[in-house]
Amino acid sequence: MMSEDQRVEDTTEEHRSAEEIAREARRLWQEYGPRAAEGTLKNRDRRAIPQMAMPAQDPAERRCNQMEVPLGYTEEQARLEALRCLNCPTAPCIAGCPVAIDIPRFLLQAAAGKFQDSINTIKEASLLPAVCGRVCPQESQCMLECTVGKVAKDPMQSVAIGRVERYVADLEREEDRVEVPAVGPDTGFRVGVVGSGPAGLTVAADLRKAGHQVEIFEAFHKPGGVMIYGIPEFRLPKEIVRKEIEGLEKMGVTFHLNFLIGRTRTIEDLIRKDHFDALFIGSGAGLPKFMEIPGENLVGVFSANEYLTRANLMKAYDREHVDTPIYESRVVAVLGGGNVAMDAARMALRLGAEEVHVIYRRTRREMPARVEEVDHAHEEGIRFHFLSSPVEILGDEQGRVRAIRCQRYELGEPDDSGRRRPVPVEGDFFEMTVDTVIPSLGNVANPLIRKTTDNLETNKWGNIVVDEHNRTSLDRVYAGGDIVLGAATVILAMGEGRRAAAAITEDLRSGRWEKKG
């Protein structure tokens, strides 16, 4: 039987200071930079360049603040990392990118120090490079297809594409060189966008560039969707999202905040009464799942959505300036193994918890969270309990959480996802004393739009059904992002937005929908 120490794994490397990493990069640049400038750098030389580590805050310091953990590359680090690209003729990395960024071209430009050209290449396909460079799971997308990683038999050793993307995007913003995309001639069409998350912002930008009037309806008091309420400041600074939204406003996109579609107005109202020529629904999947085990109604149990929304959108961490209610926790158990679970666990630590435990029914190898986020959590002192799953949350006489009871598991045969199925070990249980439990088990679509929109086809999970062009069962109505895919990544939602925007523009220009204005 596996011991508890074996179940609580720690495979992270020792933290290295930013200064040490920078010194190594300067030494390597002196070796490889001149040869790159002379054009004498061969592919075998490029493969010899080690991947540039990402400098980060010291774990002991960052667990007490909300500042961004990764510090970003220096110029030498960015150029060295870009030099590792082999510029493969088939460019397999592009196929791994949901929005098809020309990755070899932007890396070639970055390696040459042509940083404005590099960011311009990225922005041909991606509206949110500073965001995607930080939060996209490159290791399971573009890096998974990278030839450098395939030669090393490890996608984590591929070219660190997102880190270079982040560098050139940040440089453009810090030097105040961000240009507002050109807007096409006014088409006279008016398009509404429901939700201001990654899918909504992307579709709005593409539609506005095509010359349509665009209005975004956001239920919260701040735009940005999951990038604002879900992803913590220490992983994605809100100022970066604000700057991206500011660019849309300069393009002429209108935002309506505190506007709940299904209550403030319905989809039918927007088309029949407000005369929108087309609508895009990108409202996300914000209804949390629970385990449906005894004790989930106890005081001290919070969905990760609620916990993170209070902390991120409502700034519960900033006790000196805001008065957002947040539960005072000493020992926290987070249930799940995805990015949201990592965000909730690391936020709990920053909100003052003495101990934070992550309980996951498979092993670290099967965790869907980004490797970097799991590494950061380990470094910050969060404990992982693998091959375990809760069966009951136990309460005290006041109805508050006092402990959690879990069953131990072992891995069986692979399931439909390709991951080995967790199988309970009969009779093997343990209890853990905790005062707070945060389930992070994924989300489903909020039923509000479905219940207030007649004839809108949805599947058994409540997600909106669309065709290959993101058209729904209703005329003039399109959808994309999490409301279609279920829980997905920022870049996948953006890909949905791009495809929908192209279909909307094609349909409006072809006369598929008669102009309503």
Describe it.
This protein has 517 residues and is α/β, with parallel strands linked by helices. 37% of the residues lie in helices and 15% in strands. It contains 22 helices and 14 strands. The protein has helices at residues 4-7, 18-38, 43-48, 59-62, 75-83, 92-95, 103-111, 115-123, 129-135, 142-145, 147-152, 161-174, 198-209, 226-229, 238-251, 267-273, 304-312, 339-350, 371-379, 448-451, 482-485, 490-510; strands spanning 190-194, 213-217, 254-256, 278-281, 287-288, 331-335, 355-359, 383-385, 388-395, 401-414, 420-433, 436-439, 443-444, 477-479. The strands form four sheets. Strands 3-2-1-4-14 form a five-stranded parallel beta sheet, with helices on both faces. It has a four-stranded parallel beta sheet with strand order 8-7-6-12, covered by helices on one side. A three-stranded antiparallel beta sheet has the order 9-10-11, with no helix packed on it. α7 (103-111) packs across α12 (161-174). The model is unreliable at 1-8 (pLDDT under 50).
